[in-house]
Write a structure and sequence with these properties.
The protein is an all-beta fold and 75 residues long. It has a domain at 22-72. The chain contains no helices and five strands. A five-stranded antiparallel beta sheet has the order 1-5-2-3-4, with no helix packed on it.
Length: 75
């Protein structure tokens, strides 16, 4: 998981994401389909899927085909 090495992640963490790879990214998420106003993405290397809510559209005008992500401890 993205937060496995973050102590007390349940109390909060920072999630960085981009449509292009960036230094230290941990996951490449692939767009699968739209559902209920949000979008399903797949993390191929971990055989996991997750739904991202419509808040994604505060950052993008349309769902990106790929998202690169990194979770880190809040300083």
């Amino acid at each position: 998981m993205l937060v496995a090495d973050i102590p007390n992640a349940e109390t909060g963490f920072r999630l960085l994401f981009s449509v292009t790879p960036f230094p230290g990214y941990q996951a490449e998420m692939l767009l699968l389909r739209e559902e209920y106003g949000g979008n399903w993405y797949r993390w191929e290397s971990k055989n996991m899927e997750g739904w991202l809510c419509p808040a994604l559209f505060k950052y993008f005008t349309k769902a990106p085909a790929k998202l690169y992500c990194k979770a880190e401890k809040i300083p």
